[in-house]
Amino acid sequence: MPSLSYAHGPSSVPLLGETISANLRRAVERFPDREVLVVRHQQVRFTYRELWDLVERAARALLVRGVKTGDRVGIWSPNRFEWVVIQFATARIGAILVNINPAYRASELEYALNRSGVSLLCLANRFRQNDYLASLAEVRGRCLALRDVLLLDSEWEAFLESGNGVPSKDVETIEAKLQFDDAINIQFTSGTTGAPKGATLSHHNILNNAYFVTELERLDERDRVCVPVPFYHCFGMVVGVLGCTSRGACIVVPAEAFDPLAVLETIQAERCTSLYGVPTMFIAELGHPRFDEFVLSSLRTGLMGGSPCPVEVMKNVQLRMHMSEVGIICGMTETSPVSTQTAPDDPLEKRVETIGRPHPHVEIKIIDQATGAIVPRGTPGEQCTRGYLVMRGYWEDDKATASAIDASGWMHSGDLASMDDEGYVCIVGRLKDMIIRGGENVYPREVEEFLFTLPGIADAQVIGVPCPHYGEEVMAWVKLKEGFTSTGEELQTQCVGRIAAFKIPRYWKFVDSFPMTVTGKIQKFRMREVAIAEKNSSSK
Questions:
Q1: Distance separating alpha carbons of residues 322 and 494, to the nearest angstrom
Q2: What CATH number was assigned to the domain covering residues 438-538?
Q3: Torsion of CA 141, 145, 149, 152, to 10 degrees
């Protein structure tokens, strides 16, 4: 009988049974004078002791503002040191931090505030061309739970000073009552497949996930991690922030938002040993015209996640960026976020062709979506995850929660994946992204990997578009390398005889960029919308 696609991540390291603030306190006691946070664009540096003092003052100030355990505190800001302080200050008093996408506009802000019942909003003045103050003014009258606002740019110092009269024991008394299973964070799903939902995460969820990601990464107090991913997302605030503090490492922030040149400058100047990012970020760094000017030899490791990584990109990261131990992480906001990871000593092919094996204390199974049965090893199906990392649910949305987490506690990911005989998982695509062309299943990831091997292609994304004859037809959006030109016919010719005919894109679109979220996730549903609109327009 063939082996089934089920595996669990064994570990001799027990789960942490503590709150976020208790874990930070232990790090401060062990490494008081080590740097914990460097934010280059704000020109600030903090040791663990200095960060703890700031968190203490901010927690007291939140009490002055009337924030209580269980209240929702929103933060709407790009990456800056105040973000990290608020993250830990809310954790110390048990307030639930609500992460709001820095790219949101007024209507999206209104939705997030009302959906989660935010009572205090901490916000920057603006982000790029987005005037936060104007957007807030537009919707504030319709956000009935919102009673207070903290402007990070102009009120921060006064905010900290306002808590000076609150005794430290008031914070400590509240802290002592907190339980690690308490909800502490609401993160809205990125909206790549419809209206965002608020994934509700506990101390236990995100602290342990951060701890085991960095355990597998082999991070310790000597590491300096360059974190260009946004704090508002799990990758930034969980893997980036909590991952570092759980190990005594240093968080190095190159800019308020991703800038490939700032990343390269930061790695060299701060002697970073690890770099985090999504594949589009690594592609931009490798392709920067000044890349060869920078000495990146301090790098040893790093993490890449958020979307599938093309094999050629991973090989270049290992070779040209000196990240020989770089790992792939994969998961979703609802799983805190990481459920599988490659190890530094995994064979090269496993580190470039898979997303690793199940995390410690985590179960993974691959099922037939129609029947729910576990499929044999090597057979594609939907990836499901179970364990400490599964969210408490979607905030005040029992129906959506029940549709995502089944009665046995399995989180259904929507990812099409397969598991090999050694338990390594390979992502084939998204269930909603899979193309069915004339009865043949076409997995976009497979076609994208092939297109990456063609000369002149910097990036490629494959989608399905409606076709009256086949149901769906394959379309490729292609970004060419600088100095290269090509046509769809030329690329199509290069595909003939090298991949099956039904997989060869019928339609080609050449672009300079792709629709994506602020975290760098490609929005294929937007690509389909554009393609369909253009097709309808041309047929008129």
A1: 32
A2: 3.30.300.30
A3: -120
Q: Which residue has the higher pLDDT, 401 or 2?
A: 401
On the 0-12 / 13-18 / 19+ scale of CB atoms within 10 A, 154 is exposed
To the nearest 10°, report the CA torsion of 201, 202, 203, 206. Answer: -30
Domain with CATH 3.40.50.12780 in the chain: 15-418
The H or E element spanning position 7 is: strand 6-8
Q: What is the DSSP letter of 522?
A: B
Give the single-character DSSP code of 114. H
In Å, how far are 135, 394, 404, 501 from 408, measured between CA atoms? 42, 17, 11, 41
Question: Which amino acid type is present at position 94?
Answer: G
Q: 7 vs 11, 357, 382, 479, CA distance in Å?
A: 13, 8, 14, 37
Task: Indicate where the chain has its CATH 3.30.300.30 domain(s).
Answer: 438-538
pLDDT tens digits, one per residue of 264-305: 999 999 999 999 998 889 989 999 999 999 999 999 999 998
Pairing of β 118-123 and β 148-151: parallel
Cα–Cα distances in angstroms (integers) from residue 474 to residues 429, 436, 513, in the given order: 14, 9, 19
What is the C-alpha to C-alpha distance for residues 198 and 391, in angstroms, rounded to an integer?
10
- Confidence (pLDDT) at 191: 44
The CA distance from 384 to 404, in Å, is: 10
Collect all residues with Cβ–Cβ distance below 8 Å to 282 and sequence separation of at least 6.
304, 309, 313, 316, 317, 321
CATH node for 15-418: 3.40.50.12780
Two tokens, residue 376: 């044999």
What mean pLDDT, rounded, does the chain reach? Answer: 93
What distance in Å separates the CA atoms of residue 281 and residue 226, rounded to the nearest whole number?
12
E-strand ranges in 313-403 read 327-331, 338-341, 357-358, 362-367, 381-387, 393-394
pLDDT at 438: 67
